[in-house]
Amino acid sequence: MVTIVGGVTAIFAASIAITQNDIKRVIAYSTCSQLGYMFFACGVSAYSAGIFHLMTHGFFKALLFLGAGSVIHAMSNEQDLRKMGGTWKKIPRTYAVMWIGSLALAGVFPFAGYYSKDIVLEAAYAAGGFGGIAFWLGIAAAFLTAFYSWRLIIMAFHGRPRASEEVMHHIHESPSVMMWPLYLLAIGAIFSGMAGYNVFGMVEPGGEFWKGAIFVLEENNSLEAAHHVPAIIKFLPSIVGLLGIALAYVFYMFVPNLPAIVASTFRPVYNFLLNKWYFDELYEFIFVRPAKAIGNILWRVGDVMIIDGMGPNGAAWLSQKFAGGLSRVQSGFVYSYAFIMLIGMIGLIGWFLK
Known about the structure:
Strand content: under 5%
Helix content: over 70%
Shape: elongated
Order of helices and strands: HHHHHHHHHHHHHHH
């Protein structure tokens, strides 16, 4: 279950990211996709590989998020990729670190993602069974990851400027207080993979770093078996990554009208991905609407009728009715008071005479 959910999550989020236009949303769905890799690594008992990918991913994904923040800052708080472009010469340092983060995310040698993502995929392939399914889903996700990463770079930095003249006039590089964290994260995005490969036990599973915290049965040791997979399996993630990058250049730089043609030709598929597999609508139908209906019933019956009706509102209603009855006695007419006194006296006399 963990393996399949992880593999499906990787391809699910990656397929959504290729159609999103908010720069931060693309990176957010990328994060969800990479979490899928970490999960199916644990599903095939490659726990240390999952944690290794978590560590490297922390560097290059934080770099991409903060880099996106630098882009947004430069673009006067604009986040829509469709309103960017033509900026790479104006913000070259931000452009450079975004390239580093994207290369690491796409798993290009020798950046961090090459070491951590590839070992996860190799372990899944070596595990066989459901691990094999997760492997192919991960390969497809790797292709999409490279594609949407360079879609983001090309739309944000290349082509003709699509922002207003005022925004383009004010584009500027972020200050040092924003750039220095990006430089530090860029170092991690480059070197954390090669530095952590041995430390996290990718060569000798369950090595000194873990100190016995991870125990895997010999027959389930997919991490050890990952080192013996065929050479094509080792190269496949890099191959599909480069193909994804190349396709992004074709779509968004060389033939820039091609995305609109594809979106129009495959409109149902495009809308399906653009609307995030309609998960928001499905979630609302399954959870939100029933929860609101139940809450409405509890409010009207439980709160209004029972709690308020029999509690403070009920007591107030009784007090009001009782006071209303007494107020009728206080009519202000002397003959009414005389009649009441007469009735009282008759009552007293009758009480004492009985």
